[in-house]
Amino acid sequence: MTVVRHGFLGALSPGHRERLFTFAHDVSFPGGTRIFEEDGVADRFWIIRSGLIALDVHVPGRREAVVETLGEGDLVGWSWLFEPYRWHLGAQARSTVSASEFDAERVRAACEKDPSFGLALTNCVAQVIARRLRATRIRLLDLYGPPDAGES
Amino acid sequence: MTAAAPLTARPGTVPIPYRVVEREGETSDTATIVLEPVRSALQPFAPGQFAMVYAFGVGDIPLSVSGIDGHRLTHTVRTVGAVSGALHGLRRGDTVGVRGPFGTGWELPAAVGNDLLVVAGGIGLAPLRPLVRDVLAAPERYGRLNVLIGARTPHELLYAEDVRGWQSAARILTTVDRADPLWQGEVGVVTTLLDRAAFGPGTTSAFICGPEPMMRATAGELVHRGVDPERIRVSLERNMHCATGHCGHCQLGPLLLCRDGPVVSWTKAQPLLMVREL
Fold it and tell me: Does the structure show a pLDDT above 90 at B253?
């Protein structure tokens, strides 16, 4: 697959990237597929090769609210790295998605066995979380909403 | 006694009458109006420049041109206060006063040969639309054209027909902050679209218009990815009144944005935007 320079993989060294992919296999999801649900067991994660995945939140009595979409090169899921290993959001394929799927348990075991690899991978995931937090904060500002003060 | 010399107005201070020849509602609070000179026309506008548009009896506000077609001017106005509300409420046949052109433009000729990255947030797409049109009129002069559009909701996306027409010649990426059940596109902030744009940082010119925090985030991300700050141009807003560089209301540090902007390089803008008091 093509490595996306600014995606999740871009932050890993070539050696660690190669190591990570020993735990992966290719998968494909037709559009509309539910990939995981809120509070489900976070036992795997994905890096998108093509297509779009929507992250959503269950709202009782209403359709799931889409809170973010992820595309080529993006990491899908980070709850697998932290106990209790449960998904905080749901995920659905918006279009046909091709992705690399990783066995989370084996990756965690490799991180424990090789601290250098574990640290590098944790740093990458932390960067993803930080980036998404920054993006969420910007959205909270409601920048495109009506200004607070009008012109004269 | 010697007769007094006749008083003459400073250039750009007397509104010229223009008539509304077309009006299209874009969203619930935003409309695009096409203006045609009643008699004499102003000097030609460049993409990125603005006019002071005067609703008679109410006041005037700065509006960037969102379309240029001969002597016709197109402006997109969002209802914010009394003046913009009056302009939004104009109908075909109504007359307004127009002063201009004012300020700096996007300076597209400086980007010849480069990949182009156009990043618009909300109504910031309005000042960028004539830039995109100019690029598409002579696409062989440039590399890849990317247009990244962010909006609050799907219903607040502007120029749907134009954007569809651009898709054959540009990479168009659109995202909204909040989706509705029918929206099948991307959800998130516009900066996340940079990952999927097609450009080489070393040979890219970027043009950004939108809310200031969005411009800061986008420009910062582009610099991080290796785009030269001098090749990143942003359109800034301040409270413009005279538009001729005299009253000082639009001052941003050493700049008077009506004269030295609104389009400035990120090299100039970034240090000023970091000063809270400016």
Answer: no
Q: How confident is the model at residue B278 (pLDDT cuts 50, 70, 90)?
A: low
Tens-digit pLDDT profile for residues A80-92: 999 999 999 999 9
Query: Cβ contact (<8 Å) for A68 and B188?
Result: yes
Is B194:B225 a contact under the CB 8 Å cutoff?
yes
Given a contact cutoff of 8 angstroms between Cβ atoms, the answer to whether B66 and B130 are in contact is yes
Question: Distance between CA B246 and CA B235 in Å, rounded?
Answer: 20
| Cβ atoms within 10 Å, residue B168 | 8
- The amino acid at residue B137 is A
State whether B214 and A150 contact (CB < 8 Å).
Answer: no
> Half-sphere exposure (CA, 13 Å, Cβ side) for B100?
33
> Which of A48, A62, A134, A143 to mutate: most B Cβ within 10 Å?
A143
Q: Are B182 and B206 in contact (CB under 8 A)?
A: no
Cα separation of A19 and B130, whole Å? 49
**pLDDT grade for A61, boundaries at 50, 70 and 90:** confident
Two tokens, residue B256: 């008077």
Q: A121-125, A139-143, B26-30, B267-271 — which is least confidently predicted?
A: A139-143
What residue has token string 């779009």? A52
CA distances from B193 to B31, B189, B210 (A): 27, 8, 15
